[in-house]
Amino acid sequence: MGTSGSFGGGKPMVPSWVGDPAADPAVPPQDPPQDGQDGSPDREGPDTAPAVPTPYPAIQPPAQGANFGSARSDMTSGAKNGSSGSIRRGAGKYVAASGGGRAAARQLGSSRALAGGIAGLASAISRDGPVEALRRFNLESLAGAPAQDVFVALTDALCPPGGTIDEAIARDAMLETIADLAAKGIGNFDELTQDDLQEIFIGVVSRSIEGRILNEVGTNSIKLSPDIAAVDRAQKMLHSFVVGCVRDRFQDSGESVSSLDSGQIDGFVSDLYAASFDLMQTMGEVE
Question: Which residues pair with 188 in a beta bridge?
Fold first, then answer.
């Protein structure tokens, strides 16, 4: 599975969602490493879902000579002027300076592992039901609890507080996604639909990408603006752009998280991150 197959190739047209407002994004941190060797984690058998996220290789630094200065400049301009085009260009330039979509995706090992864990959970719920799906985490007693409580417990199990900045990005992405869904009235865990689980998956992927960009180029541009309203507006524009790219690439794959077997999950998640970053770079070049 690769971005030129399931996720499409070529230079896409500008989607209708570009520039639309969205919900408040996360403003997390970022950083280094995880274990691993060659970038392709071990696969499990087709009849089992992963109990915990698979470790990913150590975070690689941006390509030698990478310079995020131009990306920061566009982000700063977008924050000051309320220009979604400048925010989009800044995000696209971040991907380009990182060495492209695949290289940018490698910086998010913990987030890819967490997203894979959510996909595995969705698949296990579809196959075995919520109690058995949670049993692998020793959380089966929470099957009928409010969904946000279950996912907070899952976050603590999969991404405990106090880890690396990379792990903090993943943790914040999950918590921000659950907070957003809770505000919309998400119910008990055992009442979640596959669409709900898919939205959580897309939310975690999107918010972890936002977190990485904000940490790399937003800290000295968007977040330090003295105008709080401008900061909020810029982050909403970035969120809208990122989640639009992720959703576009996910839909293009034709997959659903509940239908993936454990042998597909790691590759699918890695490809989705890479394809979303690639689309961001392409859209950033559109005037």
Answer: 146
Buried residues in 15-40 as b, exposed as e (16+ CB within 10 A)? eeebbeebbebbbbbbbeebebeeee
Q: How many domains does the chain have?
A: 1
Instruction: Establish if 237 belongs to a structural domain.
Output: yes
Is the residue at 244 inside a domain? yes
**How sure is the predictor about 244, in pLDDT bands with cuts at 50, 70 and 90?**
very high
- Domain of residue 173 covers 69-284
* pLDDT value at residue 227: 74
Calpha distance 123→118 (Å, rounded): 9
Contact yes or no for 26/232 (Cβ under 8 A)? no
Residue 15 forms part of a structural domain: no
Q: Which of 252, 251, 218 is nearest to 237 (CA)?
A: 218
Whole-model pTM? Answer: 0.78
